[in-house]
TrEMBL record:
Residues 21-143 form the C-type lectin domain. Signal peptide: none annotated. CDD domains: CLECT. This is C-type lectin domain-containing protein. SUPFAM superfamilies: C-type lectin-like.
Amino acid sequence: MYYLMLVGLTGDANYGQYNRVGEKFLYFSTKQMNWFKAHSICRTMNGNLASIDNERDWKSISDYLTNNFDNENMWWISANDLDSEGNFDFATTGKSVDYTNWFPEQPDNHGGNEDCVHIHRRNFEAYGMNDYECTGLSYFICELEREPDYELESNIQRYLANDRKRERQRELKHKQERQAKLMDCKNKFLHELEKLLNFFRNI
């Protein structure tokens, strides 16, 4: 439900809208920028350069690019090794990049200054990751920054608390009904036993 409320949310009026792609809301630029400028623009749009967290993200994004954009376009994402050469993390979260889909022999830090990551296609083949000069030009992908929905979380917790309360009430009712049935059976047994004893007394 929370995701649906965000569909079509507009960022900076000069750059357009986010689109639902897989599990994320993404904006695909129409202009090329260096990595730093792209990062800054995403921030003005209530977002960040996109992160690719797993194979599902990779497939969703690469499929979307294949179906909607020129095959020669290159796209900045958040991953970089600006802090420590060879150790790639996401600028948006500081977390290490766990999922990768590098082209063969990449990353190679060609020229000693390729510290940012973009994705593109080589010779119309499948998309892959490549390290590139951060000052170079690429299109870029922004990911909508989703703040925690505290009201929704509160409603969920309240519902769960009420559900637990209802479950306890159902268990108590079931226990009371079971006890009532046992008591009824006991009373019937005692009644039949009394009848039997009276029968033998009268013999």
